[in-house]
Amino acid sequence: MTDSDDEQTFQSRGLERQGGNAVVGFVRVALGVPHKWELAPAPTMIGYTEEHRGTPNHRGLLRLWRWAWALLNGDDVEKERSEHYLIEWFELQFTTEGQQYREMLNTSHYQIWAEIVSGALVLAKAYNRECVEELAIRWWNRELWLYERLSLHGHVFAPGTRSASSNSELRDVIYALLKGTEIPRRLKNGRPLPDFWWDDVFNCGAQWMRYLIYGGTGVADRLQSTERPVLGDTLYIHRRGFDYIATFTRITKATGPILFWAGVLDGEPVSAPVHTHDVNNLVSPYKPPSREWTDVEVVPGVQ
After folding, report:
1. Of 16, 37, 234, 238, which is least packed with CB atoms within 10 Å of its CB?
2. Three-state DSSP class for residue 93
């Protein structure tokens, strides 16, 4: 783990930047490496840290930030209270909100979700918080279930909300880490992943998962794709051999851009036209390719 400013600093605006930078600082403290931040408590935003306002990734960052501060500086009451609300965030991911909520399989904000869950797992291991550890591992196992069904040769191609592309290099790397396989070559140039890639703060989720999986923490032995997730909306995965198309036939509510379907045909990634607008209970206007599919799996939606 390097100490460069780029590795420690998110350049995005608003809560993503504040929360992202704070979580990086607390994780670096837990790992015993230098950090550049003067650690501080999370801002008092009850709507995010105790209620259900804002997006779940904002809530996740702020609840993780609050919990991390409490682990170092809080009294027993605050430790218990902040952990309760972080646990609640995870449980909603598994039930009424669904995995990644309205950012299902997204590629534009994937780094935030990866930071929240891998950061929570690092902190849980460092401070022996078994409940959070169990929930974070469960979250990643549910992601692994999806990746195994939405990939070819180690690259995940999936539809998603807030997504103009069906693929995320960060997601491919994390998929390889979760599976314990070789990291695939980069799609954009066919070359191996360069060493400096790991120094980019946007890839911190992968960096922390690499530590957790290959650092003798015991996490690697507990990663398995045995649990189908719940998503915000129902996903249909049609398959024949290596070909597959995954489709959201209806999206209840999401921010654009959106890919209603994506997959692989004849060894090549394919996807729907990019739907540029936000949607509110919209049936997909984009017909997916037709094949004589031999199998279909349904990933249930909460709606």
Report:
1. 37
2. helix
Distance in angstroms (rounded) separating the CA atoms of residues 18 and 280: 29
Closest to 242 (Cα-Cα) out of 291, 287, 200: 291
Q: Where do the structural domains in the chain lie, given as residue ranges?
A: 5-222, 235-299
pLDDT of residue 171: 98
Q: What is the CA radius of gyration of the chain?
A: 19
List, run by run, the mean pLDDT of 10-residue segments along the chain (303 residues). 45 70 94 86 79 85 96 96 97 95 92 97 98 98 98 97 96 98 96 96 96 97 97 97 98 96 98 97 96 97 85
Burial class (CB in 10 A: 0-12, 13-18, 19+), 298: exposed
Q: CB-hemisphere CA count at 13 Å for 162?
A: 18
Could you tell me where the beta strands, DSSP code E, fall in the chain?
Answer: 151-152, 155-156, 160-161, 235-240, 243-247, 250-254, 258-259, 261-265, 268-271, 279-283, 295-299
Residues whose CB falls within 8 Å of the CB of residue 251, separated by 6 or more in sequence, listed in order: 161, 232, 233, 258, 260, 279, 281, 282, 284
Q: Residue 19 has what pLDDT?
A: 86
